[in-house]
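USER:
I would value a second opinion on how I read folds in token form. Give me a protein, with the fold worked out from its sequence. Write it directly below this note and I will take it from there.

ASSISTANT:
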Amino acid sequence: MGPQRGGSGGGSLTKRTGNKLFRQSLYVKQKQDREKEKREARFRRKKEEDADPESRRARLEKNQPMTIDRKRVWDDVDDDGLGSAVNMEQLLKRRRMEQAEAEEKEAALAEQVEQGGDDEEADWKDDDSMLGSDDDDDSDNEAAAQARAKRAMRDDSMAPSTTSTNLDLTPESLVAKFPTLFSDDAPAEPKVLITTSLNSTLHDQAQLLCTLFPNSSYIPRSAHKYGHKYSVREIAKFAANRDYSAIMVLKEDQKRPIGLDVVHLPAGPTFHFSISNWVEGKKLPGHGNPTNHWPELLLNNFQTPLGVLTARLFHSLFPKSPEFQGRQVVTLHNQRDYIFVRRHRYVFREKRATEKSVVGSDGKELKGVESIRAGLQELGPRFTLKLRRLDKGIGRAGSEGDDAVQWEWKAKMEKSRTRFNL
């Protein structure tokens, strides 16, 4: 039976034939033709871009995929509170520009007064300017703010990161509200006490956290009839008297870790995180064994005031002087308000013939490291954190006043998929 052709309208050939086998063969032929045209266009574009590298760069900039992270929206407010989703770097830059404009206007006004030669107006201006000239506290705060802004304007490294967190962008409101967390007198070697919830069985997981956080020790909360079931506030008082800088309480459900409470001593704040996707190091394919060296710390993509505060907490849990000979690095990468915790060991080796050279954030090869590659080996444990609540004191019961709960996650916060809190 020959092919039956029906219909005189437009459309592909596969829709104008009634024979199934012939329709299938036409579809295969059309697909092959389309793939052939794409392949020829790809090779033709490659030849053109080899002759003109600028066209390739322009094409890559234009063809960037529109992900949810790229569609992220910010609150258009001049507020550095914990509930506002503002980019601290952009906010600081805008405030610096406004301050520079105000200084220029003030300088222009002073120049006009000098040129006018009006003694009365000049005397009035001098009297008015004496309101805050002798205030030592204001001058100290202004000097500290200028020093912090100067540190924030740091030079880029050889391979600048586009996601690294700059803790010098901390707003003054957070420093005033949490002075112990942002104190310059913090110990260079933090001391962390790790424990679990009551009647918990997560002893092995707590020991793994001891290997992740340097200079930490695990004390189980005994559940036998002679044991004392101390509260978190009692444990915090005990730990503060013994020079501990933080407490971690690992929470359990059905013999799995589901939460982590971090208390900054001596008086808070308290961060409540939920834990998901917990994987021990020995269950990771190709894993390595960690050593006792103090690791390096990478804090990525913490941009809002709440994110900077969270990054500052983790920054206070690690020593300020890592041991580079151990070649260990702990990464806390924030993406869409989920904090991915990873620990790796790195090694620098010779680049293989099949590998590409190291490129910078602009996509160009870095000079001086053309023949070097970095190898990674994950050590574990691997897990994901999500901030649920922030209390000013030691837990909800230990906080007092109307601002006891500084921030709390609610389901309606994820109604807009392009707005994030960290």
